């Protein structure tokens, strides 16, 4: 064989291999991962999602591709991000960080499967016909964070019983805002507690909320659940420590970062499960037939070091109830 012919043949083979490799890469299913949160505050949670995928032998970069889109705590960014992924097109949406991401994906497509993590009721939101038989193109899990505000308020009142008024920080742009506000007000009335409602959807408003707490000498703060506050976890914990304000949160991450107390579910379990569901759907299961999951375990986490710094004595009875006490 002549050298020129050999080079031509080699080039042809290389081109064929390149086309084959590209075809193999293109054949990999693409997951559109849409989150209302940020990559920085969900590193461990994304790892849990990947572990869920791995249960169905799906490994990112090897036999599945994940396209990530982050709203960074600003839900108004989600519709455009969802539309972009729908046009990609992706084989499935995985939505995290609450209702806003799931609703944006639902608005972008009625055919692409959706596996969601939300904090409220998927039936009331129109994401599913029922928990047992979602019936459409969406299923996933509700971690019930948005429904636990009364419990968290009660725990904070138990820890700071001398507080006649408690500040409550909500995000008015979070879809469950109205129900969160109603639940908090009803719970406060039931235990004879006054609540001072504060609202924040950006950093400036968070700063202003703490200014109000300090100026009006409000002795405690309940930060309600929501993806925006998740993306501002370190800021909220730092401001509470700086101003000496006992505060309660919805995820243990706030407490391990130095916050006083949290009550809610383990979000890593939900992220693992959404990975499992995504894997099942990519293997042929239909969202309509996969029940929406709800948690069966809730965890109370208390940071005794923070309590001591705030001059609070945590009752032994509450410590015994806690699932984790950080010392």
What's the layout of helices and strands?
Layout: H1 3-27, E1 30-35, H2 43-54, E2 65-70, H3 78-87, E3 92-96, H4 99-108, E4 114-118, E5 138-142, H5 149-159, E6 165-170, H6 177-190, E7 194-199, H7 203-215, E8 221-223, H8 227-231, H9 233-242, E9 247-249, H10 252-256, E10 261-264, H11 267-282, E11 299-303, H12 304-309, H13 316-321, E12 324-326
Parallel strand pairs: 1-2, 1-3, 3-4, 4-5, 6-7, 6-8, 8-9, 9-10, 11-12
Antiparallel strand pairs: 10-11
Helix pairs in contact: 2-11, 3-4, 5-6
Characterise this structure:
The chain is an alpha/beta fold and 327 residues long. The chain folds into 2 domains: 3-144 and 267-289, Response regulator (Rossmann fold); 146-264 and 298-326, Response regulator (Rossmann fold), CATH 3.40.50. Helices cover 44% and strands 17% of the residues. It has helices at residues 3-27, 43-54, 78-87, 99-108, 149-159, 177-190, 203-215, 227-231, 233-242, 252-256, 267-282, 304-309, 316-321, and strands at residues 30-35, 65-70, 92-96, 114-118, 138-142, 165-170, 194-199, 221-223, 247-249, 261-264, 299-303, 324-326. The strands form 2 sheets. It has a 7-stranded mixed beta sheet with strand order 7-6-8-9-10-11-12. The model is unreliable at 1-25 (pLDDT under 50).
Mean pLDDT across all residues, rounded? 91
Span between termini? 77 Å
> Unreliable stretches, pLDDT < 50, 5 or more residues?
1-25
- Per the principal axes of the C-alpha atoms, what is the gross shape? elongated
State the name of the first-level CATH class of the largest domain. Alpha Beta
Looking at CATH, the homologous superfamily of the largest domain is Response regulator
Q: Main sheet, how many strands, which sense, barrel?
A: 7 strands, mixed
CATH topology of the largest domain: Rossmann fold
Strand order of the largest sheet: 7-6-8-9-10-11-12
- Give Rg in angstroms: 23 Å
Proportion in helices: 40-55%
Order of helices and strands: HEHEHEHEEHEHEHEHHEHEHEHHE
How many separate domains?
A: 2
Strand content: 15-25%
Would you report the number of β strands?
12
Structural class: alpha/beta
Give the second-level CATH assignment, the architecture of the largest domain: 3-Layer(aba) Sandwich
């Amino acid at each position: 064989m002549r050298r020129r012919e050999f080079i031509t043949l080699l080039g042809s083979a290389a081109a064929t291999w390149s086309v084959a490799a590209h075809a193999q890469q293109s054949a990999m299913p693409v997951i559109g991962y849409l989150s209302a949160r940020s990559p920085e505050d969900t590193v461990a949670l994304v790892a849990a999602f990947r572990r869920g995928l791995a249960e169905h032998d799906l490994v990112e970069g090897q036999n599945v591709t994940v396209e990530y889109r982050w709203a960074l705590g600003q839900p108004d960014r989600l519709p455009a991000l969802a539309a972009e992924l729908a046009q990609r097109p992706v084989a499935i949406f995985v939505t995290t960080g609450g209702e806003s991401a799931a609703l944006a994906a639902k608005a972008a497509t009625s055919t692409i499967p959706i596996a969601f993590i939300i904090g409220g009721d998927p039936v009331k939101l129109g994401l599913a016909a029922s928990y047992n038989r979602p019936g459409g193109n969406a299923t996933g899990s509700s971690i019930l964070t948005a429904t636990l505000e009364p419990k968290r308020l009660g725990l904070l009142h138990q820890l700071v019983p001398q507080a006649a008024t408690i500040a409550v920080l909500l995000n008015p742009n979070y879809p469950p805002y109205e129900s969160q506000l109603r639940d908090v007000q009803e719970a406060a009335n039931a235990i004879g507690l006054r609540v001072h409602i504060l609202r924040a959807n950006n950093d400036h408003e968070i700063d202003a909320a703490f200014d109000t707490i300090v100026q009006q000498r409000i002795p405690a703060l309940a930060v309600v659940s929501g993806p925006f506050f998740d993306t501002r976890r370190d800021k909220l914990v730092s401001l509470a420590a700086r101003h000496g304000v006992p505060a309660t949160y919805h995820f243990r991450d706030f407490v391990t970062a130095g916050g006083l107390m949290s009550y809610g579910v383990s979000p890593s379990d939900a992220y693992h499960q959404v990975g499992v569901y995504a894997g099942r759907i990519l293997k042929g299961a239909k969202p309509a037939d996969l029940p929406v999951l709800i948690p069966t375990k809730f965890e109370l986490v208390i940071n005794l070091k923070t309590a001591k710094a705030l001059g609070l004595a945590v009752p032994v009875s509450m410590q015994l109830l806690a699932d984790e006490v950080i010392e």
